[in-house]
Every structure is written in structure tokens, then in C-alpha cells.
Amino acid sequence: LEQNPIQAIKNNVLSTRVICKAAYQFCVKKVILISSDKAVRPANIMGATKRLSELIIQAYADKVSQDKLKDRTIKSPSFSMVRFGNVLGSSGSVVPLFIEQIRSGGPVTVTNKEINRYFMTIPEAAELVLQASFMADGGEVFLLDMGEPVKIVDLATQMIRLSGLKVKDLETNDGDIELIFTGLRPGEKLYEELLIDSSSESTDHPLIFKAIEKMLPFEYLEKNLDHIENHILCRDKSQSIKLLKELVPEWSNE
Question: pLDDT tens digits, residue range 198-215?
Fold first, then answer.
């Protein structure tokens, strides 16, 4: 996505808007956005577009609240989101990459010795998303307890050992699999976070929390999303990114 920002905005932002519009029009019971820890103080296009997707969900949730203030009998969807980190074995996970690299005899590549990430398994993620969906009334930013972050170099080393092999010592050439550090990729952070502002509330589930996040007014956001859509249709990369930066000012893409 870092190399294809127009497609990133189209896929993450405009598609979220389409879903919210359709859900609102046809009064779908619940809409749950699966978000990412990359949306917190984003450093890349993936995170920035995910954060804007969150803002769309929040704006529609606020619109529903305003509707209900005018007419308590109205039936409207609830819009909420779940934000969590990496899921082991999922599409894009580092684990399948490490397995492939180990099977092919190495090297196993890690970007930085200090980089760490939160992880959970697919069953854990699926169950907690369903639990959060059950609890959703509208407008919540649910956070999943990801436990302690894991150093990627430790994960790589452990996977090599679990495969019955040893990390190669470059000085003595003893061992089986070389472990090399390639440097951080554009937009990659050493660590991820789950909160923008350092405040969250507990829920009835011990592993699910609610964040209190800033949001944008519905009318303001809709107007700017129209502008983004026009820029995307014109394939105007610079204006699309400029407006994305204005809507997600915490995005650091330097």
C-alpha cells in the first residue's frame, strides 16, 4: 500500500464509506470495522487510511445518535470498530514468511533488532471480535488486550529452533539458518500502539476495552470525502495524500 496510495485510499477509505452509506440507508443492524494498531499515530499509508476509516465509522455513529435525539422511535444501525494488532498466521503475517524462509534454507530477514509487535491467534481474534460485536451499541472504539509485545528477532529465532535448526553464527559459520537485518521499510515503526490518547475504559469482558477518541463532524467529513473521491477519480496522488494528511493530522509520513 505504501507504493500504491491511491489504491490504499480507494480500498480502505472509500469502501468503508460505501458500506456505511448502504448500512445507514437499509438500516443494517450492526456495522463493525476491523481496524488496526497501525491507525494509532500512523507512520504509513495503511495506518492513515485505517484511521480515516475509523473516523468515518465514528461520524456515522454520531449521525445515528443525532437522528435518535430527534426521533427516539427511529431504527438505525449501530456503527462501531475493533482495533487490534497482528494475527499469527493471517494473510500478511510475518509467520508464514519466516516459515517459507526457513524451509528454503534461509536467510531469515528481520528489519530491525529492536522492532516488536503485538500478536494473537486467529481463534482468539475471531472470538474477541464477535464478543465486541455483541457488546456494541454504537460509536465504540473497542481495543483487544494483546498481552505483551513480542520482539520479532526473538520470534524468528524461536521459529528456527522449533524447526530443529540453529541460527548461524556469522563469525564461526556454525549453525544452519542465517538471520539478517534489512533495515526499517518506508513507513515502518519500531513498535505499534493501541491508543491515540492514553485513556480507555473496561467492559464486561476482561480482554476488551473501550477507547475514548477524537472524531470529526459528519458534515465536515462527508464534504472532504467527496473531495478525496474526486481526487481519486482523477488519479491525483498529491492532492489525495494532502487531504488525507489534513483529515489525519497525527499521520507522520516524513
Answer: 677 888 888 888 888 889
